[in-house]
Amino acid sequence: MYYPEELVEEVRQKNDIVDVVSGYVRIKQKGANYVGLCPFHNEKTGSFSVSPSRQIFKCFGCGIGGNVFTFVMQYENYTFVEAMKMLAERAGIKLPEAEYDENAKKAMNKKARIMELNKDAANYFYFQLRAPQGEVGMKYFKNRELSDETMKKFALGYANVKSDDLVLYLKSKGYTDNEIVDSGVASFHEKYGLHDKFWNRVMFPIQDINNKVIGFGGRVIGEGEPKYLNSPETVVFDKSRNLYGMNFARTSRKGYLILCEGYMDVIAMHQAGFTEAVASLGTAFTGGQAAILRRYADQIILAYDSDGAGTKAALRAIDILRNYGMTGRILHLEPYKDPDEFIKNLGREAFEERIQNAEDSFRFELRMMEKGYDLKSPESKLKFRKALVEKMYTLSDQFEDIKPFIELVCETYHFGYDEMCSSVASYGNSSQAKMSTVRRQEETEVKRNKKKEDPVLYNQKVLLTWLVDEPFLYAKIKDYIHVDDFSDGIYRKAAERLIQALEDGEVPNPGAIMTSLQASEETNEEEQLEIASLFCTKITDKLSRMKGTTEVDLDTQAKIFDSVSDKERALSDILVTIKRATMQRVTDCANADPEAFKKIVSIKKTIEKIQKTHISLT
């Protein structure tokens, strides 16, 4: 779908990136920028930065960056058109009906087909459960004491013992083999061909907040592994950013949500009237799921299993919730393992009472920590105290004021308040090296999983970002670099817009340039995401690579990389790399261009001039 550039820019300007991002991620001001934990990869130290002046974001751990459109596209798994609609609605801007271009049609049609296929598969499972062949599945649900009304509400179903009946049904509805595989309900095997992913399982359709089926969970009947099987991730299903039951829970209006572990826990709680219950989707609780919860409640009650694994999961979830600015409380289910068992044995009223008496998350953490120490032993108590000091220091990164936490610790374990405050401060000074080690480990892991980046495109991005940050640089290099030196597509288009602005004496606006590219009819969905990185690759990243160090946040970069000579050396390397790539492109096309030899000689002379010339940045 195509929207005029002026309209796209209006939507961008009326959606301040700090406001939008803070609705998903807990960020706090640090100097001129805002920082927090990146929602796109797991980390313990904040490397995610948002610039209000430039209206862009950047993660210095995984490298993702861009403007407000890019953030929504990445986070919500939206196309540009979908992000445009969401942000326009948020800003109260009415969008005109517009025509779809071929790329937008293709992307949106694929999503629409998968959603329709999921709906048909859910209907098939639904009727299988209520047919004679679904008797074993119906027996399972009845044994779990689910009513017909509840089974209908959650659209529960059954996948029978045949391994290709769903495939045959979907083919009869006109779906292609590729569409069936892409939806995640079937797999292709060289020996067995196309076959159902789910069979001999009771089925739990997973719906988004708009009640559309995006995936499935299935529990095996009888013995078999895995006990629970979920859909793989698809173009419409990202398990780390969805929650089971949220389509119902978001309208509960109770001021809190209950987070539990399994489908049956959610269903049993809803049947008992606790419609605020949700569950993660077969994976550990994630920051993406926390961001969803934050839209609907500030307080989350954790109703995890009462065994060791449940306790461990609760402790991890508490930390994630805090990082997203939410309060966690712990629901105690003893002597039963999970909410389903508790409600069946003690009833709704007793469960409601447990909710009202849910334990403060910090007190819960203290109790769990205490279990690992013998407080009657002076030596063990000293170790416990050291562990508490470390805990307090961790909290100082999550809360502006940790005095209430220190006061509770001192009151509970009879430690001196002033002494404890002093210990926390001392620990903070001595733990910086440890924190740096954690950061290096995190970034090493992220970089290990990154795709190898094209060095030419990388240097083009560094130069584009540098020109935006320091427009004076253009006058120093305009004789060496031209628009044609940038790669075809969005790189050259971005360079055209940026260089034109610099020639006109304007202050470059990276957010607006991104908008003009995103609004173009010629920009496909893959390029929409690539646009994100065009103005987010700082010269300090180039310097850190040249020096063999690890890139850190913006403020720290400024302190580490302030050598003019380093920057001048990096600039020469960037220009030479880009010009050599241009020479290679001309050489490859020499047969088709009689003037190619002259161009090659000219470019070679320019490269030699760059290498011999000292381009001063002072």
Sequence-ordered SSE layout with sheet pairings:
Elements: H1 5-13, H2 17-22, E1 27-30, E2 33-36, E3 48-51, E4 56-59, E5 65-66, H3 68-76, H4 80-91, H5 102-129, H6 135-143, H7 148-153, E6 157-159, H8 165-172, H9 177-183, E7 186-189, E8 193-196, E9 201-207, E10 213-220, E11 228-230, H10 246-249, E12 256-260, H11 263-271, E13 277-279, H12 287-296, E14 299-302, H13 308-323, E15 327-330, H14 339-356, E16 359-360, H15 361-370, H16 378-396, H17 403-413, H18 417-430, H19 432-449, H20 455-469, H21 473-477, H22 490-503, H23 510-518, H24 525-530, H25 539-547, H26 554-560, H27 564-588, H28 596-612
Parallel strand pairs: 12-13, 12-14, 14-15
Antiparallel strand pairs: 1-2, 2-3, 3-4, 4-5, 6-9, 7-8, 9-10, 10-11, 15-16
Describe this structure in words.
- This protein has 618 residues and is α+β, with helices and mostly antiparallel strands.
- It has 5 domains: 5-91, DNA Primase, Chain A (Alpha-Beta Complex), CATH 3.90.580.10; 117-237, DNA primase DNAg catalytic core, N-terminal domain (Alpha-Beta Complex); 241-366, Dna Topoisomerase Vi A Subunit, Chain: A, domain 2 (3-Layer(aba) Sandwich), CATH 3.40.1360; 372-447, no CATH class; 449-612, DNAb Helicase, Chain A (Orthogonal Bundle).
- Strands 1-2-3-4-5 form a 5-stranded antiparallel β-sheet. Strands 13-12-14-15-16 form a 5-stranded mixed β-sheet.
- Helix 5 crosses helix 9 (177-183), helix 16 packs across helix 18 (417-430) and helix 20 (455-469) crosses helix 27.
- The longest helix is centred in the first third of the chain and has 28 residues, at 102-129.
